[in-house]
């Protein structure tokens, strides 16, 4: 009995460490994903709080500054005097400059410090919880059995987050106020970090060697399928691939995501402990994806119900007219659906079965028109009273209808251009609107900067500001509209709507339209004798900013639109001549690239004691120039403490990361 007892004790001593290791590994594999999610929840809440505080403080201190603004401007306002009451605004501006206007450039990639910090924090969190506490009970450090399976559980726990960040309708966007297109960066970043963890997890299993019998296991084959699919996703999601073959990326992405989810679900089935199933991390992704699709379907039915025979004009009300403005620009105009409302700068997804490769292929474009609250009579009568001698027809479509200006690339846009060349019509399903909204009513000065096709984002903002001042909702006193184009003839894209907007601008609002031609010489234009443009010598500071709009098939930035008269008697736009437009009092035209740094500095000086909003949409280089122009000292905390302008910046760029 004694020897038997001793043998049992010895066996216990040999088996116990392995059993204890396993119990510890399971406990930590169950607990650490919960801790990671607690960290992420706190991070999301922190972002939401920062945005809320920035919004509240800006509004509160902007209103406070209005009461004293006139007296401060009238008095001898010394820039050396520090006003301690501006300290909250100074801190907000410091946060804005450091977080969003300082960038790190990696070739064609550019990340602001907020994106860099979020990326580093996410990486640090996942890798820390993967590799901490990996010493086994025998004292062996960095035990692979401790971190390899834990990495797999952490990967599974992040799949719902990655899925949510990639959907158009998600709760994270609702909580933080960050638009889904900006969250798309985090979607790609999280997927790439998880990709590294996937191969750390897989490598730990592959390194010792796999036997032929192992590949017969369904769970292993499903794991390999999920890892291979995620690897392929990370490759095809790189910017060069997406830019040159977006449609290939779009459909391949859809298939590979499904393979990742199904493979991961079946793979985790074999490792789920009795207390908690690791599949619980996977199946919510299907629900998130399904809810997003259901919301899209509801939008489609609500805004496109004429296609389903609910109205007498079914099949025609949402037919869109097309026109090829230039070889690289298509204008698409359609009657606004009932109940469809949008804000300036938002985008809509267009589904055109007759043009797309697949029936429900959707493409996002910026809405170049403005959802006006003015009546048709008010718009037309105001324009007629001021433009009686201009022989132009009021551009009502820009105030009442949906207008898109589409940059022609390959694939879908190339096929659409072929139809537009024949001035054909296409059937369109509409999904949207999406994207952030801008409330510009509380700013004293608004500066809108666009490069090329990016003007479709800034034009509605200008129209919104003018209407806000007319209705008494906006306190804006000054607007500067800057547009950089390659060919002076491109001005006719929006010349009529700009002329009409200037004609209805109240006297209390000063509007300056500045056109910079960076490509073809103005002298090549047929209207050059009548232009009277300012020569390059008149512009002593010309930056080296490239102002050409970047090519992006994901958000093919709508270019300016002019309405067309069709069978439904939609009012047309009769584009005014280039010379007539440029000779308007508020319009200046220059050859060369603008010195955005000097321009922004001048605008900030004019707005001392008040608030200024800058909205920019264009290439990465023009956005970078604007960010640099609004760094220290123009928008620094010391400048704000001394009565400088409180500056907000909104950058719209649809490039790839």
TrEMBL record:
<dbReference type="InterPro" id="IPR017927">
    <property type="entry name" value="FAD-bd_FR_type"/>
</dbReference>
<keyword id="KW-0472">Membrane</keyword>
<keyword id="KW-0406">Ion transport</keyword>
<dbReference type="GO" id="GO:0015677">
    <property type="term" value="P:copper ion import"/>
</dbReference>
<dbReference type="GO" id="GO:0006826">
    <property type="term" value="P:iron ion transport"/>
</dbReference>
<feature type="transmembrane region" description="Helical">
    <location>
        <begin position="111"/>
        <end position="132"/>
    </location>
</feature>
<feature type="domain" description="FAD-binding FR-type">
    <location>
        <begin position="287"/>
        <end position="440"/>
    </location>
</feature>
<feature type="transmembrane region" description="Helical">
    <location>
        <begin position="248"/>
        <end position="265"/>
    </location>
</feature>
<protein>
    <recommendedName>
        <fullName>ferric-chelate reductase (NADPH)</fullName>
        <ecNumber>1.16.1.9</ecNumber>
    </recommendedName>
</protein>
<dbReference type="Pfam" id="PF08030">
    <property type="entry name" value="NAD_binding_6"/>
</dbReference>
<keyword id="KW-1133">Transmembrane helix</keyword>
<keyword id="KW-0813">Transport</keyword>
<feature type="transmembrane region" description="Helical">
    <location>
        <begin position="36"/>
        <end position="57"/>
    </location>
</feature>
<feature type="transmembrane region" description="Helical">
    <location>
        <begin position="189"/>
        <end position="206"/>
    </location>
</feature>
<dbReference type="GO" id="GO:0005886">
    <property type="term" value="C:plasma membrane"/>
</dbReference>
<comment type="similarity">
    <text>Belongs to the ferric reductase (FRE) family.</text>
</comment>
<keyword id="KW-0325">Glycoprotein</keyword>
<dbReference type="GO" id="GO:0006879">
    <property type="term" value="P:intracellular iron ion homeostasis"/>
</dbReference>
<keyword id="KW-0812">Transmembrane</keyword>
<dbReference type="GO" id="GO:0052851">
    <property type="term" value="F:ferric-chelate reductase (NADPH) activity"/>
</dbReference>
<dbReference type="InterPro" id="IPR017938">
    <property type="entry name" value="Riboflavin_synthase-like_b-brl"/>
</dbReference>
<dbReference type="InterPro" id="IPR013130">
    <property type="entry name" value="Fe3_Rdtase_TM_dom"/>
</dbReference>
<dbReference type="InterPro" id="IPR039261">
    <property type="entry name" value="FNR_nucleotide-bd"/>
</dbReference>
<keyword id="KW-0560">Oxidoreductase</keyword>
<keyword id="KW-1003">Cell membrane</keyword>
<dbReference type="InterPro" id="IPR013121">
    <property type="entry name" value="Fe_red_NAD-bd_6"/>
</dbReference>
<dbReference type="Pfam" id="PF01794">
    <property type="entry name" value="Ferric_reduct"/>
</dbReference>
<dbReference type="InterPro" id="IPR051410">
    <property type="entry name" value="Ferric/Cupric_Reductase"/>
</dbReference>
<feature type="transmembrane region" description="Helical">
    <location>
        <begin position="152"/>
        <end position="177"/>
    </location>
</feature>
<dbReference type="Pfam" id="PF08022">
    <property type="entry name" value="FAD_binding_8"/>
</dbReference>
<dbReference type="InterPro" id="IPR013112">
    <property type="entry name" value="FAD-bd_8"/>
</dbReference>
<keyword id="KW-0249">Electron transport</keyword>
<feature type="transmembrane region" description="Helical">
    <location>
        <begin position="218"/>
        <end position="236"/>
    </location>
</feature>
């Amino acid at each position: 009995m004694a020897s038997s007892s001793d043998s049992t004790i010895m066996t216990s001593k040999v088996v116990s460490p392995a059993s204890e290791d396993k119990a510890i590994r399971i406990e930590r594999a169950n607990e650490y994903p919960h801790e990671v999610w607690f960290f992420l929840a706190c991070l999301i809440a922190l972002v939401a709080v920062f945005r809320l505080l920035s919004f509240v403080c800006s509004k509160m201190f902007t209103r406070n500054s209005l009461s004293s603004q006139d007296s401060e401007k009238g008095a001898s306002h010394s820039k050396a005097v520090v006003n301690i009451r501006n300290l909250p605004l100074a801190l907000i501006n410091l946060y804005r400059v450091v977080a969003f206007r300082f960038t790190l450039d990696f070739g064609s990639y550019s990340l602001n410090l907020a994106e860099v910090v979020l990326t580093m924090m996410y990486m640090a969190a996942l890798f820390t919880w993967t590799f901490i506490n990996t010493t086994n009970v025998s004292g062996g450090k960095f035990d692979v059995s401790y971190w390899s399976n834990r990495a797999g559980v952490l990967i599974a726990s992040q799949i719902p987050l990655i899925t949510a960040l990639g959907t158009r309708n998600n709760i994270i966007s609702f909580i933080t106020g960050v638009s889904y297109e900006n969250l798309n960066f985090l979607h790609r970043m999280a997927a790439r970090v998880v990709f590294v963890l996937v191969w750390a997890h897989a490598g730990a299993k592959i390194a010792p060697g796999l036997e032929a019998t192992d590949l017969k296991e369904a769970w292993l084959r499903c794991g390999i399928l999920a890892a291979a699919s995620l690897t392929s996703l990370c490759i095809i999601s790189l910017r060069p691939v997406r830019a040159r073959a977006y449609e290939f990326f779009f459909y391949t992405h859809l298939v590979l995501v499904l393979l990742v989810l199904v493979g991961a679900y079946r793979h985790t089935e074999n490792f789920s402990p009795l207390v908690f199933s690791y599949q619980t991390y996977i199946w919510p992704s299907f629900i998130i994806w399904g809810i997003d699709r259901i919301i899209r379907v509801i939008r489609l039915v609500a805004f496109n119900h004429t296609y389903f025979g609910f109205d007498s004009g079914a099949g025609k009300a949402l037919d869109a007219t097309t026109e090829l403005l230039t070889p690289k620009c298509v204008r698409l105009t359609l009657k606004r659906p009932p109940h469809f409302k949008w804000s300036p700068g938002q985008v809509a997804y267009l589904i055109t079965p007759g043009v797309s490769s697949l029936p429900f292929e959707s493409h996002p474009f910026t809405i170049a028109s403005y959802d006006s609250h003015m009546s048709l009579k008010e718009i037309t009568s105001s324009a007629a009273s001021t433009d009686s001698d201009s022989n132009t027809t009021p551009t009502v479509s820009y105030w009442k209808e949906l207008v898109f200006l589409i940059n022609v690339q390959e694939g879908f846009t190339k096929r659409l251009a072929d139809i537009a060349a024949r001035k054909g019509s296409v059937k369109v399903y509409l999904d949207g609107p999406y994207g952030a909204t801008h409330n510009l009513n509380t700013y004293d000065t608004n500066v809108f900067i666009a490069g090329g096709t990016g003007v479709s984002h800034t034009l509605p903002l200008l129209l919104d500001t003018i209407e806000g001042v007319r209705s008494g909702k906006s306190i804006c006193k000054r607007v500067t509209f800057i547009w950089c184009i390659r060919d002076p003839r491109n001005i006719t894209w929006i010349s009529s709507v700009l002329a009409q907007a200037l004609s209805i601008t109240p006297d209390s609002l000063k509007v300056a339209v500045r056109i910079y031609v960076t490509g073809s010489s103005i002298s090549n234009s047929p209207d050059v004798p009548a232009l009277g443009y300012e020569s390059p010598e008149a512009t002593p500071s010309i930056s080296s900013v490239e102002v050409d709009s970047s090519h992006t098939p994901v958000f093919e930035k709508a270019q300016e639109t002019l309405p067309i008269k069709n069978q439904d008697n939609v009012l047309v736009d009769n584009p005014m001549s280039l010379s007539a437009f440029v000779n308007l009092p508020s319009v200046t035209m220059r050859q060369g690239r603008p010195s955005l740094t000097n321009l922004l500095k001048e605008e900030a000086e004019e707005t001392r004691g008040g608030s200024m909003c800058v909205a920019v949409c264009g290439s990465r280089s023009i956005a970078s120039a604007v960010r640099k122009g609004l760094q220290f000292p123009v928008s620094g905390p010391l400048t704000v403490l001394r009565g400088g302008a409180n500056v907000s910046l909104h950058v719209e760029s649809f490039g790839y990361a």
